[in-house]
Design brief:
Largest sheet: none
Distance between the termini: 75 Å
Protein name: Pentacotripeptide-repeat region of PRORP domain-containing protein
Pfam families: E_motif, PPR, PPR_2
Shape: globular
Radius of gyration: 28 Å
GO molecular function: RNA binding
Keywords: Repeat, Transit peptide
Helix content: over 70%
Amino acid sequence: MCARTTTSSWMKQLTNASRQGRHGRVLHLFFAHLRRGDRGLVDLHPAAVPTALRACARLGNASSGRLIHALVITRFPFLAADAVAATALLDMYAKCGLVASAQRVFDEMPRKDDLVAWNALVACYARHALPDRALALAIKMRGQCLRPDLMTWNAVISGFALAGDDQMAGELVGAMEEDGFQPDVVTWTSLVSGSVLNFQYARARVLFRRMVTAGNPVLPCSATIVSILPAFANVADVKRGKEVHTYAVVTGVEQELTVGSALLDMYTKSGFLLEARRLFDRMAERSTVTWNSMIFGLANSGHCQEAIGLFNRMLCDGARPDHLTFTAVLTACSYAGMVELGKSLYRDMQEEHGIEPRLEHCACMVHLLGRAGWLAEAYDFIKAMPLEPDCFVWGALLGACRSHGDIKLAELAASHLLTVEPANAASCLLLSDSLAGAGRQDDVTKMKRLAKRRRMKKLDGCSWLSEST
């Protein structure tokens, strides 16, 4: 078989793997082909390099992308001037977070009239929290006799929306309309997503309503649904979330993994466990994120045995647990008082699954031991930690000491908490409760004076304040 026929057959395999989303397979085929080429058996198809670079971009595989870049320079210099290959290279660096490398590729392109390349760099800056540079580049395009298109406008708008600059994002939408482009589903999804990521849930809901009820209504896509659902993840707003769920069912996107996972997360966080479990059970495909959401939801709602059972089912189904999975199942063990199982899972996490303990795992273990009254072992665990204990670790111990009346250890935990978070009044409040329970009113007064003197505040987000309840 001649080299040309071999190359044609190989390129067909490469293209098919790319279309099927098998990006790891694309890179395997690409580099295997080059190794055969080292022995003079095959030639390289010009479309192979862009295809391989797109696979690197999808996988975030910068090391392989750099290797391909080196191969272009040393072995296939004719591709250096190819606009398609250069744009694929720029896009690979951009999606791998290597902004400077993407800019360098752009600067070295022999021609500056490729709108696709400009858009790739604009999107790079927008994606990596540099919206001002994205906007400056879009303006510079006009100096090159290139008119920004809808993709350019959407990229810049997305950059400011993600940065939380709602005013600028809105002004750019107006400028886009003046330039002859109407907001499409990508525009609206960027605005909604930016609001949600910046915790502006009310604004996100308003934008979503405007999207579907404006003079020129735009139908949401699956990405829009995934973006908006976190804005409904509480009991007060879950009714609207159910309406979005209905839309997902009607349009047939409910079965998409990302949509199903987002719906499940909304239901579990708002405490609608029955709806969440029904959705979970009929999902055709589940990711680690899906399993984690369901296990967390069950554990946080007090269904600890069910959460642990679901974790075991996850392992039997061959799903791969991650660090969040173990945080969820350790939480379940803690609330269920299953100390030995929790200790066993903590070991398995490291020995069988190769997951190094994080601070959240350590806080779960301290809470597990402390809640069961094993205060000395909990303190020994903290002293043996490979990580520096944070407020959640010491807070878990302090909460347990309050529950079990260990004043001496409570004072020790509180002193560490004051060192870690000197402005947080929680440690003083918890210690005051413990001292009051022991009848030490003079010490309670001293703690209150200390909190007042330091102008302490009760900080939000400290879940360990109620750990012992």
